[in-house]
Amino acid sequence: MGDQITLGASDFVKVNITNSKTESVVFEKKFPKDISVADLKNKLEILTGGCAATMQVELYNGDNLVCKLDNNDALVGSFPIEDGMRFHVIDNFQLFTETVEKFDLTEEQYNQKEDSLRSFLKKNKLGKYNEEEMKKIEEKRREAAEEEARKAAECKVGLRCQVTTKNQPRRRGVIMFNGEVEGKKGVLIGVKFDEPLGVNDGSLEGKRYFECEPKYGSFVTPAAVEVGDFPPEETGLEDEI
C-alpha cells in the first residue's frame, strides 16, 4: 500500500471563478495545487456547466490576464497562481447550445427545463442562486468600495505621500492628481515621485493630467497611497548614468 501524501494549507489555493456566459456569477473555491489542468477542468465543468473537453481556462489577477492554462498535463501549482486570483472559463460549446435553446424556447419553457445550466445552478444553489454567498460577495464589494472611497478622500493634491505597489520599492513623492482617468476604472491617484521611479510624465495615452519630468510620474490606486509627512529620500539616482 503506497504512502499517503497529506497536503498542507500552502498546497491549496483559494480562487474566484467566472465564466464567459454569466460574468456576474462568481464562486470562491479552494483547489489543491498538485492536480493537473485536465482534472481542474473536470471540477470546473461541475461548477460552471461547461464542457471540460472544450473549455479554455484563463488566470486573472483582478482585471489583468496572468496566463492561460493551456497545458492539460501541467499541474495547477506550476502556474503563477496566488490566493484571491480568478479562473475565467471560456466555453464556446456552452455558449452555442444555450443560444440555440433560448432561441427555440420561451423564457417560461426554459425555466422549466431540468437539464439546463440555469436549472443546475438553482438545484445546487450556486452563483447568483446562492443567496447567502451572493450577500457575502456584495458585502465584500461594498466594504472594498467604501475603503477605496475613504482612501481616495485622504489623497488631496499637494500632500506628501508614500506609494507601495507589488514588485516595486516604496516610493515617495507628491500627489498631483486625484480623479478618473480616461479608459481606466475607478479613481486613480497621480503621483510625482522624488526620484525617476515612475513610468510617465503625468500624461497617459496622449492626455495630460499633471506636469512632471519623464519617469517621475505614475497613476496608482488609492489603496497604494499612504499620506503623511514623508521627507524626500536621498538615493542619488539622479547622479547615476
TrEMBL record:
Residues 179-221 form the CAP-Gly domain. InterPro entries: CAP-Gly_dom_sf (IPR036859), CAP-Gly_domain (IPR000938), TBCB_Ubl (IPR045172), Ubiquitin-like_dom (IPR000626), Ubiquitin-like_domsf (IPR029071). Pfam families: CAP_GLY, Ubiquitin_2. Keywords: Chaperone, Coiled coil, Cytoplasm. One of its GO terms (molecular function) is microtubule plus-end binding. SMART domains: CAP_GLY. Residues 128-155 form a coiled coil. GO terms for cellular component: cell cortex; cytosol; microtubule plus-end; nucleus. It comes from the Eukaryota. It is found in: Cytoplasm. Belongs to the TBCB family. This is CAP-Gly domain-containing protein. It comes from Hermetia illucens (Black soldier fly). The lineage of its organism: Eukaryota, Metazoa, Ecdysozoa, Arthropoda, Hexapoda.
